[in-house]
Amino acid sequence: MPLQILEAKLAAQLKALPKDSQRQFLSLYNKSPGKLPFSTIFKTNALPCGSDSPVGAVYPTICLINHSCVPNSHNNWNDNLEHETIHAIRPIEAGEEITIPYDKGGCTCLGCSLPPPELDDSDARRLQIQLLDAAIGDPYRIMSEPREVLRDCYSMLQNLNEEFGGYIGILGARLYYDAFQISIAHGDQARASVFAKRAYESRVLCEGEDSPEAQRVRSLAMKPARHMSFELASRQWRRSKDMVPKSLDTESFEKWLFKLDLPRDLR
């Protein structure tokens, strides 16, 4: 929408608000002050009402939360509640600033202010995470090289944990859901159910139990074969949901889950 049209619409909507609400809006940061103050304040502060949504909203409190490349909280639009939510994704000390990720780096946050050697290591990890994310999302590889893609998921998980100190938030939920889709596409309901459960737990941490996406993933953990991709690629990994091994230690279970050099009978 052209800024001139947005300016006129916002002016009319602001006029209808109580004076306190008008003052709250006008007190928000404006990174491009000028002749169109309402639209530039909105552009500076608006958060999307859902993933990739063309609709955005401004909140008098949430919009005061600063960015961090290593955030301690996650913001999310809840379709059922029709409002934005904020959930802590790691312990927050008393007096510590609440932060969420919405910038592209190069700022003055904790992650961008590391000493040069540590910043170089962080940049290298983030580049590796981007490369692995692209490789995991390649539909051809999911069809033809599923075991290699699942191993990429494991590598990405290690990089995420190192980069974010074990608190990987919504990135973990997305990664586990990717692993779920790889497993279910080749008929493995056992691994798929585990990955969906982990995706659900990560979603609850970031978005709460009332999150529609969390509830959707929870239903897939209980009945993974309901997913539209079930056996879409092949049946080569076919396992029922009750075939999750029960007697493995943590390390062996992770090797089984991500198919990391296990004996053939455990693959």
How would you describe this structure in keywords?
mainly alpha; 267 residues; 10 helices; two-stranded antiparallel sheet; two-stranded parallel ribbon
In short:
By secondary structure, the protein is mainly alpha-helical. The protein folds into two domains: 1-45, no CATH class; 116-266, no CATH class.
Explain what the structure shows.
The protein has 267 residues and is mainly α. The chain folds into two domains: 45 residues, no CATH class; 151 residues, no CATH class. Helices cover 49% and strands 7% of the residues. It is built from ten helices and six strands, in the order H-H-H-E-E-E-E-E-E-H-H-H-H-H-H-H. A two-stranded antiparallel ribbon has the order 1-2. A hairpin with a 4-residue loop joins strand 4 and strand 5. Helix 6 packs antiparallel against helix 7. The model has no long low-confidence stretch (mean pLDDT 93).
Strand content: 5-15%
The ordered string of helix (H) and strand (E) elements is HHHEEEEEEHHHHHHH
In the predicted model, the low-confidence regions spanning at least 5 consecutive residues are: none
Portion of residues in helices?
40-55%
Helix and strand content put the structural class at mainly alpha
Into how many domains do the coordinates divide?
Answer: 2
Over the alpha carbons, how many angstroms does the gyration radius reach? Answer: 22 Å
| Shape estimate | elongated
Biggest β-sheet, characterized? 2 strands, antiparallel
Walk across the major sheet and give the strand order: 1-2
Overall strand count: 6
Q: What number is the mean pLDDT?
A: 93
How many individual helices?
Answer: 10
Distance linking N and C termini: 53 Å
Q: What is the oligomeric state here?
A: single chain
